[in-house]
Structures are given as structure tokens and as C-alpha cells.
Amino acid sequence: MDLRTDQPHPARIYDFYLGGKDHFAPDRELGQKVLEICPQLASGAQINRRFLARSVGLLARDHGIRQFLDLGTGLPTSPNLHEVAQGVAPEAQIVYVDNDPIVLTHARALLTSTPEGVTQYIDGDVLDVDRIMDEAARTLDFGRPVAVSALALLHFLPDPQPAEMLAEVRERLAPGSFLSISHALPGLREAAAAYQGGTGLGTLRDWDEIAPLFGDFEMLEPGLVEPHRWRPELDPAEEDPEGALDNMGACGVARKR
Ligand SMILES: C[S@@+](CC[C@H](N)C(=O)[O-])C[C@H]1O[C@@H](n2cnc3c(N)ncnc32)[C@H](O)[C@@H]1O
Fold first, then answer.
1. How far is the CA of 90 from the centre of ligand 1 (A)?
2. Are 179 and 148 a contacting pair, CB within 8 Å?
3. Ligand 1 geometric centre to CA of 152 (Å)
4. Ligand 1 pocket test: which of 52, 156, 182, 199 has the largest number of ligand atoms within 8 Å of its C-beta?
5. Whole-number pLDDT of residue 3
6. How far is the CA of 147 from the centre of ligand 1 (A)?
7. What is the reported pLDDT for 200?
8. Fold of 10-206+222-236+244-255
9. Is the beta carbon of 238 within 6 A of some atom in ligand 1?
10. pTM (2 decimals)?
11. CA–CA dist 102, 82 (Å, integer)
């Protein structure tokens, strides 16, 4: 498989921002160039991962969720979703989906389930909803609640793809299921332009374009907010960077009635 390590790649640049080890010189060069324009981007990536940890922990602990479908998983990073969920409930079942060959080569690290639980990895395009849901159904029972996450994914997809894909996914979920989204905001425009110059990706959306992606699901408190403002009390280490990360990213969790 040709992983084109001579060219910058979004999953590896994101890994660079998270302090991971799966990146090469071209990824670091573009990553650094974007950081010069928008130094907060590295903290933005980290607060997005902490939103994942707090929200998955809450859904497992307070809402009894035992099934998770993670769309656009990315490279393994600590903690992975299954580590958080199975830390609360060892029997939790997690299905990861990504279409990136680089993520696939690291997928084994994602498949380290507890003996009681299950992790599955689907190498596929989230837009192929029929195939993803059919394959995920080998592990997950869609007749019962499932928490679907689409974190830092949808800004890689042009309109109308996110709305159409999520409408299909929401339709197939049982009442009591959840949808979690995090998404880049227009405050990242300059950074996205530099990023796009190097990787050809990125569709920023504003608050009023992100909110409808939850459809008629009911938003959990505190609604759609910047990731460090989503239930920070769940993690004593969460800090408010005093406006530095305003208007860079939005996130929320909503429940199917
Ligand atoms: C920035 S990473 C986010 C990783 C993780 N969800 C997080 O929030 O930390 C975005 C991931 O979405 C994946 N992705 C983008 N478009 C996709 C598609 N159409 N189908 C599946 N995965 C996709 C990319 O390969 C990448 O790994």
C-alpha cells in the first residue's frame, strides 16, 4: 500500500497536533505552517478529544449506553473511544469507521477490546450508509440505543453530504440513541485556507448550519457550544482558555426521542 509519506496528510497532521508519533516531515511542515497562522489549532484538536472522552463517559455512565458507532475515527490516540466506554462498562461494543488507508494500517491498535466487550473496524466511506450500517450490525443491535459520533469529520465533507448522510443514520437508530457532533467554525477560516492549500480539504460551517445536522433529536445540556464549554465539570483538568478558542469549533450531543 502506498501511504504517500512524501505528502502532507490530514490524519497525520491531526496526530502531530495531538502530540502523537504517526507523522512525517511533510505533515509536520504543513502542520507547523498552519500553526503559525492559527496557534490555537493544536489546543483545538486536544479539546476536541477531551470532549470525546467526557461525552462518551457520560453516555456510558449516566445514560447506560453500551453500543457506540464512531464515524471518521482517525488514528488511534489516547484515550481511544473504546477505552473510555469500556472503562465504564467492560461489555461495551464499539464499531469504528474510517476510509483512510493510513488509519487502516493502525486499526489493530483500535481493536484491543476488553474480553467482555467487542471492537470492530470498518474500512469504508461514511457516505455509504447502507454498507456501514449493515456491517456495523454484525456487532451492534440497532434495535437498541446506539451512540453515533461524528467528531471533527463533517467539515471534510461538502454540502449536502453531511445532512444527507446523518438523516439516513438518524432514521435507522432506535429511540434513546444519541448523536454527537464536533465541527470546525468559521473562526478557523485562515487556518483552513492554509490547510486546504496543502491537502485539498475543509468546509467550515457556522453555528446555524451545524445545529440542523442533529435533525429532530433533543439536545442535551448545554446544547451546541465550544468543546471546552461542554460539561467541563466532568473533568477537573478541563480549562477555559479565556476566549482563545472562541468560534473555532462547536460540539453537542443529542438524543432520539
Ligand atoms: C480530523 S480526523 C478526526 C478523528 C476523530 N474523530 C477525532 O475527533 O479525534 C477526521 C477523520 O475522518 C476521516 N474521514 C474523512 N472523510 C471520511 C469519509 N468520507 N468516510 C470515512 N472517514 C472519513 C479521515 O480519514 C480522518 O481520519
1. 25
2. yes
3. 7
4. 156
5. 76
6. 17
7. 52
8. Rossmann fold (3.40.50)
9. no
10. 0.95
11. 20
CA gap 72, 53 in Å, rounded: 16
Q: Are strands 249-255 and 178-184 parallel, antiparallel or unpaired?
A: antiparallel
Contact predicate 50/75, CB 8 Å: no
Mean pLDDT by 10 residues, the chain (257 residues): 82 91 93 90 92 98 98 94 98 97 89 94 98 98 98 95 98 98 91 73 89 98 97 89 86 98
User: Measuring from atom 1 of ligand 1, which residue has the nearest CA?
Assistant: 152
Which residue type, as a one-letter code, is found at position 59? Answer: L
Give residue 199's pLDDT.
63
Instruction: Kindly write down the DSSP assignment for every residue of 74-137, as one continuous string.
Output: -S--SSPHHHHHHHH-TT-EEEEEE--HHHHHTGGGG----SSSEEEEEES-TT-HHHHHHHHT
| Backbone φ and ψ of 245, nearest 5° | -110, 15
